[in-house]
């Protein structure tokens, strides 16, 4: 197996997602994050993922790097990953500094996933123009690479102009940067980084990113990681699938209401409307559901279908807002006891077979 930050021949890593801090009334549950990150590490996950949005009524996490700084103190080996930081909403030098600090606090375990954002309200509240966000993200990547050298640098782009800037501390090692996004330009841009994360594992979105990235030069590099986030709901008392479905449905409905003002999934899926879930029931949004054996089969089948990637990361979305913390910890432990060992045993057989 590999870590989420690197790759070896036919390596598959498995992460836990997606911590957002949301709660059903009473304010966000950020205090639970270190406990859940530690539970993910104890269960044998390779990475722990957090996300970012701004201004949501239920307290969606607005500061993922701050959150991962807390998670770093509760863990020692697991990769800490952002899926994704909205890089277009902040100054790239500040982003470089914050990421470097988290890298130090974690002992070099940060994986920085970045995205351009798509909700107009988030840009308006930040006083940032939404137009040109692709260019803004591209320049942020360029600035990050210069800033993390620890050397003084000058940069003149269309949007940012920096003269004689030095960022300290430099990170402990080159921080791997992945990009999310569904538009052609976003996928092409990801090919110049260390990885790409498909945040919604709809077959058409996964297939499109897979085909487009495989056609790029960078995708042939074994250090490039193709990442897919798979949403799951397990059956049985320890998995608490009914609770997961109910919590996910509440979150998804709020998410879709916010998306009515934005260009979700780069227009590749229908736009949400009204007070009902776009796809009907919540099971339509869940890629993996059933008992442990069924989840294992689904994870292994997904990995096998993408085994042409030298480095593949599957992030299992099993954390949902508003659930009782102990229930979520027990679900994570169940995955570590009943699902991950068998997945890794099965995937071991794929290691020696050429794609």
UniProtKB/TrEMBL annotation:
InterPro entries for this protein: Luciferase-like_dom (IPR011251), Luciferase-like_sf (IPR036661), SsuD_RutA_monooxygenase (IPR050172)
Domain Luciferase-like: 28-301
Pfam families attached to this UniProt entry: Bac_luciferase
Source taxonomy: Bacteria, Bacillati, Actinomycetota, Acidimicrobiia, Acidimicrobiales
Alphabetized PANTHER family for the sequence: ALKANESULFONATE MONOOXYGENASE (PTHR42847), ALKANESULFONATE MONOOXYGENASE-RELATED (PTHR42847:SF4)
Keyword list, A-Z: Flavoprotein, FMN, Monooxygenase, Oxidoreductase
Classification via SUPFAM superfamilies: Bacterial luciferase-like (SSF51679)
Identification of the protein by name: LLM class flavin-dependent oxidoreductase
